[in-house]
Specification:
Elements lengths: L1 E5 L3 H12 L3 E6 L12 E2 L1 H9 L3 H7 L1 E3 L1 E6 L2 E6 L6 E3 L2 H12 L5 E5 L13 E4 L6 H5 L9 E9 L6 E6 L2 E9 L2 E9 L9 H13 L8 E2 L5 E3 L11 E2 L14 H14 L4 H25 L4 H12 L1 H10 L10 H9 L2
Parallel strand pairs: 1-2, 1-9, 2-8, 5-11, 9-16
Antiparallel strand pairs: 3-7, 4-7, 5-6, 10-13, 10-14, 10-15, 11-12, 12-13
């Protein structure tokens, strides 16, 4: 079978690798040249590491990144810590490093062909048996198929700081923005901002000055750390869209949920697996993806409701602090298979108790 994958990021490449392993001929067409980078929290959750293990890449990802064992939320003086189930962990890894590993793995197969700097149109697909679309959050291909796309007014900014990292992902809530700290190396901390841009009168190069001032105020211990690898800012989808068209859309091209959940790379890996399994039937692919959409989507909508650094955020932190086992349970359910309601009645009541 000859398969065309439109988009050479994590979703497209890991799907290509799975198809190559079962004997398909796969062409990956990427509009950019070089390795793919973008605003990203750069954390692979435990369920994502399990998917990389299936591909034989988990150990190489660990050696290129840094393990973390839970997620902590901060809101002013409030702090709550959630731990992954015993024996499991996530890995923070440079997105470009993961992209390189996937490309190298694909290149070991004779049936692999990578086309860079190309824009695929419908007439270019006629010689292929199947077409999979993984061309990102602003998917030109999905728009060409008649799908209405929606972008929000939130911005993402990501850079790295040279400093010894924590053993956890840290999420700090502020009015109109969230800050993610992800350990990606023994002396490297990836910093990602999600910002409600209209609330800040900042333009162009002024963002770097704004970031320095923000760090000086809220993270003085990091304010003078050298910043590097600042990524291009990009508008981010803030609301999920309707049902996808009758093609395989993978990863961010689905515009399935807000990136506040931090599960983007893991979800992309899952999309790749399920698309390869259901290569002949897009409808079966989306049905298989439903549990993950509910799992990640439920978690996302909950955080979106409580975000903002105001009373609702304070209330969420207070309740999680009263019931740390519930927070651990929420993290264990954030695996692409379960829903928030799987906490059970006792779990939800423990979160809601006064």
């Amino acid at each position: 079978m000859k398969v065309l994958v439109v988009g050479g990021g994590i979703a497209g490449l890991n799907c290509a690798l799975r198809l190559l392993k079962v004997g398909c001929q796969v062409t990956v067409a990427e509009k950019q040249k070089g390795f793919i980078d973008k605003v990203c929290g750069e954390g692979v959750l435990p369920f994502g590491m399990a998917l990389l293990d299936e591909l034989g890449l988990a150990e190489r990802v660990r050696s290129n990144g840094h393990s973390f064992y839970g997620i902590s939320y901060f809101n002013g003086s409030q702090k709550v810590c959630g731990k992954f189930p015993e024996g499991s962990h996530g890995v923070g890894v440079d997105r470009v490093a993961l992209d390189k590993l996937l490309r190298e793995a694909c290149s070991q197969y004779k049936g692999f062909n990578l086309m860079e700097g190309v824009h695929i149109k419908e007439k270019d697909t006629e010689s292929f048996d199947r077409v999979l679309v993984a061309d990102g959050i602003h998917s030109a291909w999905a728009r060409s198929m008649g799908r209405k796309m929606q972008t929000g007014k939130r911005l993402g900014i990501r850079f790295r700081i040279a400093t010894p990292p924590p053993q956890e992902v840290q999420v700090h809530f502020f009015p109109h923005c969230e800050v993610y700290f992800t350990p990606t190396g023994p002396n490297t901390l990836s910093v990602a901002f999600l910002i409600d841009a209209p609330k800040f009168n900042v333009k162009g190069s002024g963002w770097k000055t704004w970031l320095r001032e923000f760090f000086a105020q809220h993270f003085p211990q990091l304010a003078e750390a050298p910043m590097r690898d600042m990524s291009t800012r990009a508008p981010i989808v803030s609301k999920p869209l309707g049902n996808p068209p009758n093609i395989h859309l993978l990863g961010d091209a689905l515009q399935a949920f807000d990136p506040i959940c931090g599960a983007g790379m893991s979800f992309a890996l899952l999309c790749g697996k399920l698309a390869a399994q259901h290569i002949h039937d897009p409808a079966a692919y989306y049905k298989a993806l439903e549990p993950a959409m509910k799992s990640v989507g439920g978690f996302t909508n909950t955080i979106l409701f409580f975000r903002g650094g105001g009373f609702k955020t304070w209330l969420m932190m207070r309740q999680l602090g009263k019931s740390p086992n519930t927070f651990n349970r929420i993290l264990s359910l954030h695996d692409g298979k379960h829903r928030f309601t799987d906490l059970g009645l006792s779990g939800m009541l423990s979160f809601l108790r006064p």
